[in-house]
Specification:
11 helices, disordered C terminus
């Protein structure tokens, strides 16, 4: 039987198929990210609730209502309003010499991407873009994807913004808290006398760091798998060479679809695609199996 030769089109199709498989493969790294996402959301909510109480104690609602009447709503800069919506706050532990800590509920892009990893991926966007950007620096594809990610996050979540909420509606910003406008957040330090309240601040910072790190670990894991398999595909002469490593490859990609050049090179051969990819390579991952959760619509999109 004649062996199926590989060309550029077929190699790229196999790489694309494997990339989707890897992104759908449960791993310790992905599990860690999911946990960190949950812990981060809990920590942010807890600190936000505490901050609302601190702000209301310093700025009574009735006072804010009076000052708000004299705001210049047409102003494009917070300096011309008596009240404003802020998401950046400074906290000081009065029971220790610990330095002040600034916390913001308006997330940096890398944090928002980590928090919304699956949602971005489902939109065909690259949730690893900020991490990848640290490697490629000035790559135009990075800046293009950065804009797409930022736009989607601003339109679909309350995680990314300009730092200040909409001045005309207090309901436009989930994390914004109305304050008396005294300048930037560094001018408004809130003293925390109880250690447990300070623990909320420390926990939020730690959960933010853990979220970023877990996302980076998942990126490294997926990059390693792709690097190894791409090398196999690039060095393979025939499809059988790929099958030696990716034993059930035919369940995920059809050579007939590749050869027909229909643009649907990732269609499943059958609806009963196997959910298990055995050891991807003996090297580096000798003791791990990867359970794949892939459905037909994901592979054909």
């Amino acid at each position: 039987m004649k062996k199926e030769q590989l060309n550029k089109t077929k190699r790229e199709a196999y790489k694309k198929a494997f990339k989707q498989v890897v992104s759908q493969t449960p791993s310790q790294e992905k599990e860690d990210l999911l946990k960190c996402q949950t812990y981060f959301r809990e920590a942010r909510t807890t600190l936000h609730d505490l901050t609302v109480k601190l702000v209301e104690k310093r700025y009574p609602k009735e006072d804010l209502e009076v000052l708000r009447k004299y705001n210049n709503q047409s102003s494009g800069y917070h300096g011309r309003n008596f009240t404003d919506m802020d998401r950046c706050f400074v906290y000081k532990n009065t029971n220790s010499d610990d330095p002040e800590v600034r916390a913001t509920f308006d997330l940096k892009l890398e944090v928002a991407e980590a928090l919304n990893h699956d949602s971005l991926s489902a939109q065909g966007l690259n949730p690893f873009n900020s991490i990848w950007g640290n490697e490629v620096k000035s790559n135009p594809h990075y800046h293009n994807q950065e804009g797409k990610n930022s736009n989607w996050l601003r339109e679909n979540t309350s995680d990314l913004g300009s730092g200040y909420a909409d001045r005309e509606s207090l309901n436009m910003n989930t994390w914004g808290i109305e304050i008396v406008n005294t300048g930037g957040c560094h001018t408004r330090a809130y003293a925390l006398e109880q250690d447990y309240k300070w623990a909320y601040v420390v926990n939020y910072k730690r959960c933010t760091d853990d979220l970023i790190m877990s996302h980076e670990n998942l990126y490294k894991f997926e990059k390693e798998m792709l690097t190894i398999m791409n090398a196999v595909i690039d060095n393979a002469r025939v499809v059988d060479d790929i099958r030696e490593v990716w034993k059930d490859v035919d369940d995920y990609i059809s050579l007939n679809d590749i050869n027909s050049n229909t643009g649907n090179a990732l269609s499943l051969v059958s609806d009963d695609a196997k959910q298990k990819i055995e050891q991807l390579l003996n090297r580096n991952k000798a003791d791990k199996d990867h359970i794949v959760v892939v459905n037909k619509s994901q592979l054909t999109s």
